[in-house]
Amino acid sequence: MEFKLSAASFVSEKNFLPLDQSALYDVFIIGGGPAGLTAAVYCMRKGLSTGIVVKSLGGQVADTSDVENYMGYRHISGVDLVEKFREQVHQFPIGYDEGAEVVSFSEGKIKKVVFSDGRSFSCKALIIASGKSWRRLGVPGEDRLTGRGVAFCTVCDAPLFAGKNVVVVGGGNSGVESAIDLAPLASKVTVIQNLSELTADTVLVKKLNSFNNVEFIYNSIVEEILGEDIVSGVKLRDLGTGRVSEIATEGVFVEIGLDPNSRFVPPSLELNRFGEIPVDCNCRTSLTGVFAAGDVTTVAYKQIIIAGGEGAKAALAAWDYLLKLNEEE
Ligand SMILES: Cc1cc2nc3c(=O)[nH]c(=O)nc-3n(C[C@H](O)[C@H](O)[C@H](O)COP(=O)(O)OP(=O)(O)OC[C@H]3O[C@@H](n4cnc5c(N)ncnc54)[C@H](O)[C@@H]3O)c2cc1C
């Protein structure tokens, strides 16, 4: 293992290298959100041979319209912040793959990370920074009509619904933020909440109430999304009365929160009941040489700056682990 940082590490731009199946990486990182990309910078600055796989660059930040709490920028769009992160990683000759998905990995001194296309990569230390993804309703019509009126990312898709009548499912922060983004564009927004009130932050609820084209349906769940080729309505069940009704709509934004992307981990890796990975204060998981950072972990307060900080810690902890491993060999 080469721990000394070589001058070549700082060649500017166009430095991403294809991942090499015959290499033994010091560190392999799963995920290209703030946690994974920060870990990548710290690993490269330590001179570690590093590979990173990024299913979707930027993760949740790419789905965020405005960021106003990331230090250094009073205001920056999510897309611009992702580009800043990419540039920062891009100065290093790092093994990089975008678009591929990890489906499993094996534990042991040498870990093997397997992609859905069958490729596999070996490493001594692994950093899991796979974040979270939009939770789905799991009702008939949802999968079939995704991209045909069913949407999850308001930042990405709201403009497609300009002048239309849309439904937002969820009355927490995700749902209310989504409705706030849609209200200035859509002709009408109906928020469907399974409880008797919204559970979003007061400041968001106040903002949403300032629009006069937003309606609320409480104590109700979506049982089916209707439509042949495109969305035409939703079937609702009132949880109090049991009454089933249908409302017409041209779009359904499913905004009921996020689930951790941890389905690919082996059963021997401890998860909590939500599927999050418990970590200690050095980002160590229950498996030796496997570290985790960001929203996929049990660390509280899911924020960009926290995910970035955890990514840095995971990389430095991996560096410590590799130093000790090196001494033993
Ligand atoms: C709509 C919205 C608005 C937000 N606004 C803010 C805000 O204003 N300020 C703030 O601080 N935070 C905000 N957040 C939260 C913040 O975006 C997250 O806390 C942060 O992005 C978490 O970073 P992460 O790297 O842990 O995970 P993620 O950002 O989720 O990134 C995970 C990465 O892992 C990849 N991945 C997942 N599974 C696999 C796999 N099997 N194989 C390969 N790659 C995989 C993903 O493609 C992605 O690249 C917002 C979140 C949302 C959804």
What is the helix/strand order? EHEEEHEEEEEEHEHEHEEEEEEEH
Q: Tell me which CATH architecture of the largest domain applies here.
A: 3-Layer(bba) Sandwich
Largest sheet: 7 strands, mixed
Question: Helicity level, as a percent range?
Answer: 10-25%
Strand portion, in percent?
Answer: 25-35%
Distance between the termini: 11 Å
- Which stretches are poorly predicted, pLDDT < 50 over at least 5 residues? 1-13
Number of E-type strands: 19
Mean pLDDT across all amino acids? 94
> What form results from the Cα inertia axes?
elongated
Written description of the protein model:
The chain is of the alpha/beta class and 329 residues long. The chain contains six helices and 19 strands. The strands form five sheets. Strands 1, 2, 5, 6, 7, 8 and 19 form a seven-stranded mixed sheet that branches. Helix 1 packs parallel to helix 2 and helix 1 packs parallel to helix 6. The longest helix is centred in the C-terminal third of the chain and has 25 residues. The protein is elongated, with a radius of gyration of 22 Å. It starts with 23 loop residues before the first strand and ends with a helix. The N terminus is likely disordered.
